[in-house]
Design a protein that fits this description.
The chain has 224 residues and is mainly alpha-helical. 65% of the residues lie in helices and 5% in strands. It has a two-stranded antiparallel sheet. A hairpin with a 2-residue loop joins strand 1 and strand 2.
């Protein structure tokens, strides 16, 4: 087997090249998780430095809006990850759920801390994605006014009621859409945010969730 190098956020990551260029399901997520840990450690080290010099952003701007909206987005992923871990014995799914839970819980805490540091409230009366400028906010929300990729209350209830392979398929389907929505939100923040820490974390989220989505799709195909 010849190692293949793939770029993730500027870092080269070794990926085992098997038939079709895709590692076996049992090894896929550990490889992704290891690369993302390295990526996020570098990003968080950068954030520790740039936070000291960044000035507080406006309450209505992209930085504060992203910090609030992405917190809510991440916390739904945490909820769904906890649900599926209790509803399957599949070790790969449980590893994926654990990694999503821990990484997104940590990032949500980071964004909560920014708002505290900036002296801004954790919530806003503005609608979701109102911070997206240029009149494009409507393109980033669903017909029911929710953020991109967010599961409906009924879909979360369906996941809670499912078990085994049914829960795995539903979780993967919902998380693929959730990640795709998260990437759209992160890319909007990269384009519009004014603080270094928001741009750095949004860039890392976009890179990591884009890569994770590919592996989640492979895992869903394995369970079709």
């Amino acid at each position: 087997m010849t190692p293949q190098k793939e770029s993730v956020g500027g870092a080269a990551v070794a990926v085992g090249q098997h038939e079709g260029g895709i590692p076996p399901a049992s090894t896929r997520w550990p490889l992704v998780a290891a690369s993302l840990v390295s990526l996020l450690v570098g990003v968080l080290g950068t954030l520790w430095v740039v936070q000291v010099r960044s000035s507080a952003p406006a309450d209505f701007g992209a930085d504060a809006g992203f910090a609030r909206d992405m917190q809510a987005h991440h916390l739904q992923a945490v909820e769904m990850s906890l649900l599926v871990r209790d509803r399957t014995s599949d070790e790969e799914i449980r590893a994926v759920a654990y990694d999503i839970f821990t990484s997104q819980q940590q990032q949500a805490g980071q964004m909560y801390g920014w708002l505290v540091q900036w002296g801004l409230p954790q919530t806003s009366s503005s609608s979701p994605m109102a911070w997206v400028g240029g009149g494009h906010a409507a393109a980033h929300v669903g017909p029911d006014g929710v953020m991109p990729g967010m599961a409906s209350a009924q879909q979360v209830d369906d996941l809670e009621a499912a078990d085994g392979i049914e829960a795995e398929r539903l979780f993967l389907t919902l998380m693929i859409a959730h990640h795709q929505g998260g990437v759209a939100m992160a890319d909007a923040a990269v384009a519009q945010a004014r603080t270094d820490e928001v741009v750095a974390l949004a860039s890392a989220i976009s890179a990591s969730q884009s890569l994770e989505t590919r592996f989640l799709k492979d895992m869903l195909a394995d369970r079709s």
